[in-house]
UniProtKB/TrEMBL annotation:
Its cofactor is FAD; (6R)-5,10-methylene-5,6,7,8-tetrahydrofolate. This is Photolyase/cryptochrome alpha/beta domain-containing protein. Residues 2-126 form the Photolyase/cryptochrome alpha/beta domain. Keywords: FAD, Flavoprotein. SUPFAM superfamilies: Cryptochrome/photolyase FAD-binding domain, Cryptochrome/photolyase, N-terminal domain. The keyword Flavoprotein applies. The keyword 4Fe-4S does not apply.
Length: 429
């Protein structure tokens, strides 16, 4: 018997899912398959996926299993994809449908799938891949990207038949978090609900997006996007519809602008392949980044003695969430003031972030580390920014104390890193 197998990866949804749509369109028997191996592993001694993201994925998978039954499709959850495919191919004539992703492990996973008859799609971004110089700046990309057409989301898949195949039970851990922590409800319908709910804020988004605390100051779409509980195109079309119903504003444009950053980093990784995981990343220079154990242990234990940095580490480690402003301050401080190897910083973020995806994470961190798409050497004054963005309240919540000025010269440390790690004299770049 012929069967189509849809590999679910970071496309955990029914709507606008190219692999599912095409498998059900051209086949009458379809099985969904998800492998837990995609979140396993370790980088620089950090577990690849901590409990916050794992829980969110598991809850989304349980939702998806239920949603797929409306289309007649069973979703099997297995550990090892190769073993599962070997078993299935012994019993059936299989054809695999999958969405392509970016990233080294992601491509290695695809190599296993490609051993079988298959059809693949690239559906990670709003804009389809198009040529641009991936070493250049975001502005270079944006000028071209804004001229690209964005496809409308697909119609729902067709109802088909499925087969029974082994599936493992997923564990949902009962997480204890403070009541002011950012918490996400998992599942495709929750993702769409969040997008529809957020439409009331699109005209104020630009003003509030840099705040460190709060659920509605920014969209919080990233968590759903990272595992594909909703597609970027669906969000774009919801945004456009709301602009037609209300009006277009600089602020509503800014959501599209930020989604373009997401596309940018995805397409930079699409073209640069594994470069962003390497020490030189997109640049030619080999910097003297530090890998000293004590430096690393101090930051992991939120022991940097800069309150805004320590508070950010505590929030990330105890919830999986961090606002964009805090991510920037944290990454910039660890790399540009402490001189830590950006790949260690990236592995730390990867481990804890609930919305981790390789392109946005490594793209942003390489950008902060001056080895990515940023051509200007920037050091953030974290104390000044803390004052500017109401860090006092944030610190009070996460460290349960009043903000204190550091008793050491963090600016001098940043100057030293610039000279010794980056070998740049202070007056020039
Ligand atoms: C050090 C560092 C690490 C990061 N790691 C990740 C990551 O692993 N996964 C991830 O999704 N984002 C990452 N980002 C980007 C950004 O911080 C988050 O996407 C954003 O904070 C998520 O909150 P939001 O959905 O409310 O964003 P909004 O401000 O509401 O933005 C809307 C959407 O635009 C996209 N977006 C916004 N800013 C960026 C950006 N700088 N780069 C790429 N896409 C962006 C996201 O998809 C986001 O959901 C990182 C940023 C930094 C500085």
């Amino acid at each position: 018997m012929k069967i189509a197998i849809v590999i679910f990866r970071n496309n955990l949804r029914v709507k606008d899912n190219y692999a599912l749509y095409n498998a059900t369109k051209y086949n009458s028997v379809v099985l969904g398959l998800y492998s837990t191996q995609i979140t396993k592993g370790e980088n620089y001694n950090f577990k690849a996926c901590q409990v916050y993201r794992q829980n969110f994925i598991n809850e989304t998978l349980l939702n998806l299993q239920e949603d797929l039954t409306n289309y007649g499709v069973n979703l099997s959850i297995v550990d090892d994809i190769q073993i599962a495919l070997e078993k299935l191919s012994k019993q059936y004539e299989i054809k695999i449908y999958f969405d392509e992703e970016v990233g080294t492990y992601e491509k290695e996973f695809e190599d296993i799938l490609k051993k079988y008859k298959h059809k693949s799609f690239f559906n990670q971004t709003m804009i389809e891949p198009f040529y641009f110089d991936y070493k250049k700046s975001f502005s270079h990309f944006r000028k071209k990207a804004q001229k690209q057409k964005i496809l409308a989301p697909l119609k729902n898949p067709r109802k088909v038949k499925s087969i029974e195949f082994e599936t493992k039970q997923l564990e949902i851990v009962d997480l204890k978090m403070p009541n002011f922590a950012i918490k996400f409800k998992a599942g495709e319908s929750e993702a769409l609900k969040r997008v529809k709910y957020y439409m009331q804020y699109i005209h104020s988004y630009k003003k509030t997006r840099n705040e460190m605390l709060g659920f509605d100051n920014s969209t919080k779409f990233s968590t759903y996007l990272s595992i594909g509980a909703i597609s970027a195109r669906t969000i774009y079309h919801e945004l456009k519809q709301e602009e037609q119903r209300s009006f277009e504003s600089e602020s509503s444009y800014w959501i599209y602008f930020e989604l373009l950053w997401r596309d940018f980093f995805h397409l930079v990784m699409y073209y640069s392949k594994n470069a962003l995981f390497l020490k030189k990343a997109l640049q030619d220079k080999d910097y003297n980044f530090k890998t000293t154990k004590s430096l690393i242990n101090n930051f992991i234990n939120a022991n940097t003695h800069i309150d805004i940095i320590d508070a950010s580490i505590v929030e990330l480690k105890s919830t999986g969430w961090l606002s964009n402003r805090n991510r920037q301050l944290l990454a910039n401080y660890l790399i540009k003031t402490l001189g830590i190897d950006f790949r260690i910083v990236a592995a730390f973020f990867e481990s804890y972030l609930i919305d981790y995806n390789p392109a946005s994470n490594y793209g942003n961190i390489a950008y902060q580390a001056f080895v990515g798409n940023d051509k200007t050497y920037r050091v953030f004054d974290v104390i000044r920014q803390s004052k500017q963005y109401n860090g006092r309240v944030y610190i009070n919540k996460w460290l349960n104390k009043e903000e204190q000025e550091p008793n050491f010269d963090y600016k001098k440390m940043a100057d030293e890193v610039k000279q010794t790690v980056y070998c740049i004299e202070n007056s020039s770049q």
